[in-house]
Amino acid sequence: MSNEYDVVILGGGTGGYVAAIRASQLGMKVAIVEKDKLGGTCLHRGCIPSKALLRSAEVYHTLKNSEEYGITAVDIGINFTRMQERKQKIVDQLHKGVQHLMKSGKIDIYEGTGRIMGPSIFSPQAGAINIEYPNGDSEIVVPKFVLIATGSRPRLLPGLEVDGTVVITSDEALQLAQLPSSVVIVGGGVIGIEWASLLADLGVKVEVVEFADRILPLEDEEVSKEMARLLKKRKITLHTSAQVLPETLQRGERSFTIKAMQNGKEIMLSGEKLFVSVGRQANIEDIGLNNVEAEIDRGVIKVNPMYQTGESHIYAIGDVIGGLQLAHVASHEGITAIEHMAGRQPEPINYTMVAKCTYSRPEVANVGLTEAEAKEKGYKVKVGKFNFRAIGKALVFGEHDGFVKLVVDEETDDLLGVHMIGPHVTDLISEGALARVLDATPWELAHTIHPHPTLSEIIGEAALAVDGKAIHS
Q: Shortest CA distance to 426 belongs to which of 359, 337, 334?
């Protein structure tokens, strides 16, 4: 006997469960099929646990430098087991919160693997879901709409197969029982740099290998250069324009060696852990896509601006469609898709309005176009830049490296991009994102009275700097 729903969501990660809540709010009968745990990668293997460990590393760094604040701290040490326990406690608490939200929204949860079926006796159109349970049983549910939100997993490199002992990804790193003495991170993007910062603060010797000519290659070039300078200052070795050679990997019981090619020359790398961080791969296998008209393009599901696949009643969001593989993006894509199903005619998401963050030390955040991107698009730009070193609260806080940079259209005074590196910029970037949404000008940002002393004053100063009128420069 089949169960009928307005919408069935494959995947209970951030995008999936937020979409389910919105569907429930709109009076839809909704179910989630999840083979692991509600909350998905973000809650269990990504955003939350990694940031919990980053916070522990930040506290340890502060304690080690407590003399600068006039405080003497003795016998400072690392209890990595306790760090992991704190991380898990936070994850468990949030997991219970998500479960409560599902119960409150009367959202049915099927704990199994869901596969989309083609037209069958259960439904004349494709979209019925066959759910297979761990005990071997199965069940069919029939929705009017399907939302695919199955997320992603760490991308692997051929020849660098994960063994959990020597070669690891972020998944295995989060479950380490003890800290390694040294690590080589393959990939200098957001995840790689966050882990490089975290591990270095905990006393691990860190090297980063990045194929591009700079780390954080998607950031504004000035931000990338500043981050490289500060990481090198922390004794983190960076190998840019370098490519590891998987065929040269030699694995030991607790160590490895591998060669990399950098600017035409071979370099030898070695350490206790080889951390592969080269992006994420969409989970699109074995979910029944072969039974429906869903086009796959370069490993992700192709959708229209309302997230419909080739079958108008089957939608896909989040990491499985590529683009910005971020939890907050998946959430808003899910809301948009559900509202479109409900006939609400939502506005398409403008991805240039999305804030993106790196939670390293220092933090990095941006929204909109980089200076190079703006110029490539034909804009004549002017730039305002202001350093945290001239902000009183940054000096009080004890973290004064970095800056805020605004990229502005010289002809219209439109704000094209906001780029930040420094203390708490992952919180500050929301003002820049709001300014973009409201189409604010630098004048409006500059004439917003920012309280003193706060880190947010830097935004007003950077806005004034666009026209050379910064007060404290």
A: 359
Alpha-carbon distance values, 217 to 168, 193, 351, 374, 385 (Å):
23, 11, 18, 16, 20
Nearest-angstrom CA–CA distance, 170 and 165: 13
Domain 156-278, what architecture? Answer: 3-Layer(bba) Sandwich (3.50)
Q: Is 0.90 surpassed by the pTM of this model?
A: yes
How far is Cα 273 from Cα 257, in angstroms, rounded to an integer?
Answer: 10
When computed from its CA atoms, the radius of gyration of the chain, rounded to whole angstroms, is 24
Domain(s) of CATH 3.30.390.30: residues in the chain: 362-465
- 61/380 Cα distance (integer angstroms): 42
The number of residues making up the chain comes to 473
Which of 37, 58, 57, 59 has its CA nearest to residue 46?
37
| 296: its two tokens | 């796959």
How far is 445 from 457, CA to CA, in rounded Å?
A: 10
CA 208, CA 231: separation in Å to the nearest integer?
Answer: 10
For residues 393 and 457, the answer to whether their CB atoms sit within 8 Å is: yes
CATH code 3.50.50.60 region(s) in the chain: 3-153+281-351, 156-278
For 323-374, write each residue's pLDDT tens digit.
Answer: 999 999 999 999 999 999 999 999 999 999 999 999 999 999 999 999 999 9
| Residue 452 is among the residues annotated as catalytic for this protein | yes
CATH fold label, 362-465: Enolase-like; domain 1 (3.30.390)
- Point out the catalytic residue in the list 61, 239, 340, 452: 452
Nearest CA to 391 out of 425, 364, 365, 415 is that of 425
Q: Do 190 and 216 meet the contact criterion of CB atoms below 8 Å apart?
A: yes
Residue 288: C-alpha distances to residues 111, 127, 394, 427 (Å): 17, 9, 52, 40
Domain 3-153+281-351: give its CATH code. Answer: 3.50.50.60
What separation in angstroms does the CA of 274 have from each of 36, 99, 172, 182, 187? 27, 36, 11, 9, 11
Instruction: Determine contact, residues 36/44, Cβ cutoff 8 Å.
Output: yes
Beta strands (DSSP E) in 165-216 are: 167-168, 182-186, 205-209
Q: What is the pLDDT of residues 31-90, one digit of tens each?
A: 999 999 999 999 999 999 999 999 999 999 999 999 999 999 999 999 999 999 999 999
